[in-house]
Amino acid sequence: MNAASLSATMLCGVLLDAWLGEPRRLHPLIGFGRFARALESGLHADSRGRGLMAWLLAVLPLSAAAWWLQRNLFAYSFWLGAAYATFALYLAIGLRSLDEHAAPVAAALQAGDLAGARAAVGRIVSRDVDALDAERVAAAATESVLENGSDAVFSALFWFAVLGPVGAVLYRLANTLDAMWGYRTPRYERFGWAAARIDDALNLIPARLTALTYAALGDTASAWRCWRTQARHWDSPNAGPVMAAGAGALRVRLGGAAPYHGVWETRPLLGEGDAPSADSIRRALGLVKRGVAVWVLAFLAVGWVGWWYAHA
């Protein structure tokens, strides 16, 4: 799969996501989630080794199948391979889904419907939404957009660009297992260690590229200042740069105390400038969308320059 075809299928995958959104029914990740839960049920123990074994059994066979399809479909027919690559990326990214989940929060806040805003934001964050006022609802949604822009969109694009469809598949499966097992709870502290650390490794480069993208497309000076001074205080090594740079780029104040399971947890402050609002949610969505457009156009330019040199 050469750079030109890779960049073209990336564009097609992004456009397909914009057109269709995530499948409402029969999404492959639903089946994968059930498979992962069955593995966890059979293999769970307070052991890092067991957790790593479960991760390998969940991810490697499916990634190997994705690699086999990538290799053989392109060898058989370029168009069949391109269709497979487009569909694989479409299933791996969630740009339209991000908008569909965050925009209703902004709309409810704009209308003064705090109960509706709380219900909408409760679908995308794990904190106790009934304890949130309008400003904290807006902060939760804005933070979710910035962080999930990295996890659900830019990282999938990055691994697709590096490895093709198998990269997008491997990343999405690993990210799903982190969402299922990567918690610091008594059940998952050791069993989920591998899932959390592998996801951290896979996001190490794309998270920082995402932060650079946010900085370049927003208030660059503020984004760089917040990234440099605030990111290291966040508990996640990848979410810190993404959210600090994103908050700075938007010039909005995020982070701070948030309620989880009946307890208010102290979190570092992020960003600077205005208090979060419905507008900050919409601007965060716009920042992610502009970033995706820039990435796709950049990959297209690289791909077609490579094609031109190869055929000159």
TrEMBL record:
Biological process, per Gene Ontology: cobalamin biosynthetic process
Entry keyword set: Cell membrane, Cobalamin biosynthesis, Ligase, Membrane, Transmembrane, Transmembrane helix
NCBIfam families with a match to the protein in the record: cobal_cbiB
Function: Converts cobyric acid to cobinamide by the addition of aminopropanol on the F carboxylic group.
Bilayer disposition of the protein: Multi-pass membrane protein
GO cellular component terms attached to this protein's record: plasma membrane
Protein name in UniProt: Cobalamin biosynthesis protein CobD
Subcellular location(s) per record: Cell membrane
Natural source organism: Lysobacter capsici AZ78
Primary localisation category: membrane
